[in-house]
Design goal:
Elements (H helix, E strand, L loop, with lengths): L3 E5 L4 H10 L4 E6 L7 E4 L16 E4 L12 H20 L4 E7 L9 E2 L10 H14 L6 E7 L2 E2 L7 H10 L4 E3 L6 E2 L2 E2 H13 L4 E5 L5 E2 H11 L7 E3 L8 E2 L2 H7 L7 H16 L2
Length: 288
């Protein structure tokens, strides 16, 4: 059934891929500072209120927008923007009788761990971006008796259109034959998820009457060193160079059992397929 969706971050990695997939069957409005030509757009500075926003009959809000890992932004901005925008959107839901809110969060809220992380594990945040997402999740908890809330904790999403994140950065370093800094054992071990599966899962939550907190992550577990070696193998680059530190670091591995059971979902893109597709897109983008 067609829905009227208000979406933030419509020009970002997650939001832009969602719009491409949803736009033919739904009415989507992107609100934020940048316009997506594939849908309607309303300007909104995420630090401002939403009292003057006039848009009717919204079924669901999908909150993808945030500032991520920007060293040029003072740390207080992570709270001012990421947390405040979540609060403003939730208040907008109450005021306009919007029944559902989806927050795109991060597996980083757990911190690093030796174990496979599940949704009821205690969060142990280690950096400011994940802290801002944890606070955003806590704000959502205050509203869960007033509307349906879904919190999706993404673990290392990757795929076409992504820039400046883990896998694309590793690819650049390997192609430039730079030495890659690793922990003593080449860790952490992670289980990345391709954007195709991320979008499919979010679409399911938009369509079906489900709520709660869910890990969104892949089925396959690899250390950063193993990921580098996979990228080098795909690119026919011999023997990538590593520098091993003395530090022992734990892993960041999520369990996707809860989301797969709730949606009866099976991951569609394995890491080999996803990496090959992503690296082809990176080469095209860089004119290689």
């Amino acid at each position: 059934m067609s829905k009227r969706i208000l979406l933030t971050g419509g020009t970002g990695f997650i939001g832009s891929n969602l719009i491409k997939s949803l736009r033919n069957e739904n009415n989507i409005t992107n609100i934020g500072r940048n316009k997506n030509p594939l849908c309607d757009n309303i300007f909104w500075n995420l630090e401002d209120g939403l009292n003057n926003l006039e848009i009717d009959d919204i079924d669901i809000i999908v909150h993808c927008a945030s500032i991520v890992g920007n060293v040029n932004i003072i740390k207080s901005k992570y709270i001012d923007i990421n947390v405040k925008s979540t609060l403003e959107l939730l208040e907008f839901c109450i005021k306009n009788k919007i029944k559902k809110f989806i927050l795109i969060s991060t597996g980083g809220v757990y911190g690093f761990s030796k174990k496979n992380l599940v949704e009821n594990d205690i969060c142990n945040v280690k950096e400011i971006y994940s802290l801002s997402k944890f606070f955003s999740e806590q704000v959502c908890e205050l509203y869960k008796d007033k509307l349906s809330i879904v919190i999706l904790r993404l673990f290392f999403p990757y795929g076409d259109g992504q820039k400046g994140r883990l896998i694309s950065n590793l690819y650049d370093d390997i192609c430039k034959k730079k030495k890659i800094m690793l922990s003593k054992n080449g860790q952490p071990v992670i289980n990345p998820i391709h954007i195709f599966d991320v979008v499919n899962i979010i679409k399911n939550f938009i369509e079906y009457d489900l709520e709660g907190t869910f890990n969104i992550c892949g089925n396959e577990f690899f250390s950063i060193e193993q990921l580098c070696r996979k990228i080098a193998l795909i690119e026919n680059i011999d023997d990538p160079q590593f520098i091993y530190g003395d530090n022992d670091i734990d892993n960041m591995m999520g369990s996707n059992k809860k989301v797969c059971m709730a949606l009866n979902y099976k991951m569609q893109v394995n890491l080999d397929e996803g990496l090959k597709s992503f690296l082809i897109s990176l080469k095209k983008e860089r004119g290689i």
